[in-house]
Design goal:
The chain has 86 residues and is α+β, with helices and mostly antiparallel strands. The chain has three helices and five strands. It is globular, with a radius of gyration of 12 Å.
Length: 86
C-alpha cells in the first residue's frame, strides 16, 4: 500500500506514513481510542470513516510524546496478537 506497516501474525497493528509522512496509525479498540483522543487530542485523532469508528487512530508524529506512542503501540499490538489458549 506504499507505506510501512507493522504486523503480528498476519494482522496490521500500526503503520507509518498514512495518510502522509506526518502521521502514523495504530489499531486500537474504540474505548482505547476515546481515551487517547481525550488525553492527547493534538496527537491522536480517529481515522475518518468506518475504520475510525472501529478504532483506527491517526498519530500526528510532530506532537507525539514517546510514552504515549509506546503505550498506544503496546495496546495495538496486544489487540491484534493471537490469543493464547490456557
Amino acid at each position: 500500500m506504499g507505506h510501512p506497516d507493522f504486523r503480528v501474525g498476519d494482522k496490521i497493528f500500526a503503520t507509518l506514513g498514512y495518510p502522509n509522512n506526518s502521521f502514523a496509525m495504530v489499531q486500537l479498540t474504540p474505548e482505547q481510542q476515546e481515551l487517547f483522543v481525550r488525553t492527547e487530542p493534538k496527537t491522536f485523532t480517529p481515522v475518518p470513516g468506518g475504520w475510525g469508528t472501529k478504532g483506527a487512530t491517526h498519530v500526528l508524529l510532530k506532537t507525539a510524546k514517546k510514552a504515549a506512542v509506546r503505550e498506544a503501540l503496546q495496546a495495538a499490538y496486544t489487540n491484534r496478537a493471537p490469543r493464547r489458549s490456557t
